[in-house]
Automatic annotation (TrEMBL), chain A:
The protein, known as: Autoinducer 2 import system permease protein LsrD
Ranges annotated as spanning the membrane: 33-52, 64-82, 89-107, 113-135, 142-160, 180-200, 232-250, 262-281, 288-306, 312-331
UniProt keyword Transport, yes or no: yes
Chain spans, region Disordered: 1-24
InterPro entries: ABC_transp_permease (IPR001851)
Annotated GO CC locations: plasma membrane
Compositionally skewed regions (Polar residues) per UniProt: 1-10
Main subcellular location: membrane
UniProt keywords, alphabetically: Cell inner membrane, Cell membrane, Membrane, Transmembrane, Transmembrane helix, Transport
Keyword Membrane carried by entry: yes
Organism in which the protein naturally occurs: Palleronia aestuarii
Automatic annotation (TrEMBL), chain B:
InterPro entries: AAA+_ATPase, ABC_carbohydrate_import_ATPase, ABC_transporter-like_ATP-bd, ABC_transporter-like_CS, P-loop_NTPase
PANTHER family associated with the record: CARBOHYDRATE TRANSPORT ATP-BINDING PROTEIN MG119-RELATED, GALACTOFURANOSE TRANSPORTER ATP-BINDING PROTEIN YTFR
UniProt keyword terms in alphabetical order: ATP-binding, Nucleotide-binding, Repeat, Sugar transport, Transport
Originating species: Palleronia aestuarii
Organism domain of life: Bacteria
Pfam families: ABC_tran
Gene3D superfamilies the UniProt entry points to: P-loop containing nucleotide triphosphate hydrolases
Protein name as catalogued: Ribose transport system ATP-binding protein/rhamnose transport system ATP-binding protein
GO terms assigned for molecular function: ATP binding; ATP hydrolysis activity
Domain ABC transporter intervals: 28-260, 267-514
Amino acid sequence: MGSTNQTVTSTDHHAGGTAASGRGDAGRSFGGNVLPLSAIVALVAIVLFATQPNFGTASNINSILFQTSIEFLAILGFTYVMVMREIDLSVGSVFALTGTLMGALLVDDWNFWLAGGIALAVAAGIGFCQGFLVVRFGINSLMLTIGSLLLIRGCSNVIANDLGGRTYPREFRSLARTDLFDIRITIVFMAVCVLIAWGFQKRSALFRKMCFIGENMRSAQVHGIRVGRIKIAAFMASAVTAGLGGIFTASRITHADVRMGLGLEFVMVTAAIIGGASLYGGRGDLRGSALGLLLLALVLNGMIMFDIEPVFQQFVIGALLIATVTFDTLVNRRNG
Amino acid sequence: MHPDGWARAPVRPLAAAERKMSDDSNILDLNGITKTFGPVTALSRVDLTVRRGEVHAILGENGAGKSTTLKIINGELDPDDGTVAVAGRATTAPERARGDIAMVHQELAVFTNMSVAENIFAGDLPRRGGRVDFDRMHARAAELLSLFGLEIETREIVSRLTPGQQQIVEILRAVRREASLLILDEPTSGLNNHEATILLSLVKRLSDENVTVLYVSHRLHEVLEIADRITVLRDGASVTTLDNDALVEDDLIRHMVGRDLAGARDARARGIGETALSVKSLTQIGEFEDVTLECRRGEIVGVFGLEGSGAADFSEALYGLKAAGSGRIEIAGRDMRGAPPAAMRAAGLSYLPANRKEAGLYMERSIVDNIAAPILDRISRMGLVDRDRIRKQAETDVGRFAIRVPGIHAEPRQLSGGNQQKVLFSACLADRPDILALNEPTRGVDVGAKAEVHDVIRSEADAGRAVVVFSSDLPELLRLADRIVVMRSRRIAGEVSGQDLQEDQIMALAAGTA
């Protein structure tokens, strides 16, 4: 236990703090990450394209984009939770539970839309509970969602075990393969979301409120911003979007699998911070998060191309997570 | 600003030669200490001499410079000018931080889950071999406790003690170090009367044991009870040092308050309208009790209270930042108790927080963003913000409040305290509220900006707003307020208006001597 003084200084440190110097009035780092990040993604892609003939094939590119677009669903709400200086590490488990639950209901011959609605409602309920606990009792969301990560994973595994290795009905399996304009629907959805996020982050009152809450929650309260409601809504959004991603993933892998979405939360944190979010709140950019996911997907794909053992993937994600978090902290301390 | 009318008061002030003397009989010698924080001068040529073996009190209002002085003595801060001699030898701040000065801070810093004995010997547990010698530790702790006539079990877990006992444990930790100077910073501020009495007797015992004590407080009767000598600080300067010999509280109050600042009130000729805010018997047990207050349109009501009076808690409860267990907060006839700040704001009550860095400003967002924060909904259509309107509003406010900035996209952290405070005012007034609750409206701003802020407050009242000002700066309230409500021990101690608006009278009410 440190002295009272120390505690006080360390909270002062977090009073805000971002490094980017964008001068847009929506947020200083607004858009600051997108261009350089795009350049890095393009660079990695070009290197892979030039060195690996298998990389440039239509099927490989398609598969990378498809994978990214499904993870993107899950990072949608997650990013905005981080903007408010909270975190939702239960996304991977909610992802698994929602997908598996919908599959299980369909195996039991439920109506397709009803099953989807119920699964997403469960996700929304989980999000509400987490948001409520954080807002009402001021529980640290990091620890809370580590707990619910385990708890929800347990529920999901029970359902998955119950199903054994049974294949989901055809109707469900074909969901992920739905195309719009000859492109997978999730990829189209991702593109549309990125465009909407652009406007949302530039123009909306809500996004500003989220940034204010993340930067200084007590100031936001004084200014009459409904901090509690917005936080709960964000946790619900995070769970529901993770659930959507889970539904598409379950459909894609066609049968129940206890490994579904394992470790997804770490991919999310890494991608979101690479994309411009911060553990210290006050910023975040869905476009950047999407690019972060794409970058991770490219790196993992490249490792396969270069015949690096797949077991090494965890090592790489772990190393990237530590690197981004270190960078994030250094950037914030310099301004603290 | 500081005429020495009172420095030449009935009691003998120290001769200059005596003050400069730095022989070994003085444990501590501060000479001409000056300290500024940015544009704010916290201390200006403070002199202080503590003799070996005495109980020396530092007395002053909030903001008089007590804590800055202590931090300099304790080696936490370096003075800009002046010297600090310990036992006759000039020292630097790091030397003092390492040296044998023990300070007990106002905020408790005990290890709540450990025993009394472990707390007393924290950082220096008695050992035998490589292990802690618990028997010896408890025996020595018991000795110390009994030496001061205290009945506390050494194995008791500290979280189960009363705040007063915890404070005593902290003091004993400092005593145990056998430092040559023991500093107690407002040690009774969190204690009730009974606990305070025990603590004062502990200080007397310490003094009998020849421990030199520097005792900081704004409680007059305590200081008179235990101090050998008293140094009064006012507005960052040492006004005088008095021998505690036939002194009465009124002497101290006169020194604390000074004379030049009183009577500087402006004649006021605004029309006072109907009641805008009416607080009835607002109570949160242990924080503020039975607080009743009314404020009319065009009126400025001051609320004054020393630390621990409950005024600060009351101000936060008024705006819904803290809970209030019972009573009413009526705005336009509707009871708003229990409503969150967002609802208060919608009802027309706006609040200026006391500590702009902690709550109020976004230090690293543009001034435009800071001013827009409370009115985002008002300037949005279908959830989309009208950015031209924000920019115009910011430009208008920067002009109106004469905020000196490089541009409207500058960030508050780049501004001086005064300009930060004006940005805070812009945000507070952005949605044109009917009622203003201002908490310490000029804390940490320089004299010039202070006058500008006062002008803003007056013009808001002239425009028909009801204004409640919470301030620990009494001269400020006297200049601004039509009447002043004084709080003491969580309750309203009285209300002063008209001819009675005099510093000594209000201070007497606040300190409980009236």
